[in-house]
Specification:
Jelly Rolls, six-stranded mixed sheet, 12 strands, globular
């Protein structure tokens, strides 16, 4: 998520069919600096989307360092902004791995796919049902799409509930920029029909650089 290591003019770019090389560390620092200039969530999301679009259109290639793990997708800490508070996490998804319906603890997020394909389903919370053993939450699936390399999307609270899964035979790698470090998330597990029980889950990393 970094700096441009080699710059080419448009003519050189088209004639050589090469892409600009992006350095991960510089990208992180440039994103941190740009986010500090933004004064609202919407501007931060727009800046992040723009930079991730440039990243996915480059010759960036760090995916091999972010391994999958058995039984669950892996979260790899890439960068923690000391001033902006933003947090960049790479995730690797083996075939069949995915998340339950979950939120991002009230912060914005911009996600991009760097390798492979994933299915992303957005959910909308329609209400709560009082139960003796705890409230149940009514969710409706609103949109499902398959995303591939180069795809960039954002989630802004309260529209943050979603599922990510890899139903394909090859692994996938995604990069996520959050407004803050996610140390926990609310996960929702189906009980019956469209009713889900909520569990707060701590989040950890498979690796940190």
């Amino acid at each position: 998520m970094n700096k441009i290591c080699s710059k080419l003019s448009n003519d050189e770019l088209h004639s050589s069919h090469r892409r600009i090389i992006v350095n991960l560390d510089t990208f992180c620092q440039e994103l941190e600096e740009n986010l500090l200039r933004a004064d609202c969530c919407e501007k931060k999301v727009a800046i992040t989307e723009s930079m991730l679009n440039k990243l996915t259109d480059s010759s960036f290639d760090c995916c091999q360092k972010w391994d999958c793990r058995e039984g669950c997708y892996a979260r790899h800490l890439v960068f923690q902004g000391s001033e902006s508070g933003c947090c960049i996490v790479a995730m690797s998804w083996g075939p069949g791995q995915g998340t339950p319906v979950h939120d991002h603890d009230g912060t914005w997020c911009v996600e991009c796919c760097l390798e492979g394909r994933l299915e992303v389903v957005q959910y909308e919370m329609e209400g709560e049902v009082d139960e003796p053993e705890g409230n149940l939450y009514h969710f409706e699936a609103k949109n499902a799409q398959t995303v591939g390399k180069g795809s960039v999307g954002c989630l802004i609270p309260p529209f943050e509930h979603h599922v990510i899964r890899n139903p394909f035979t090859e692994r996938a790698v995604t990069l996520h920029v959050y407004g803050k470090e996610l140390k926990k998330a609310s996960c929702f597990y189906p009980v019956n029909d469209n009713l889900y029980r909520r569990e707060e889950r701590p989040l950890s990393y498979a690796s940190a650089q």
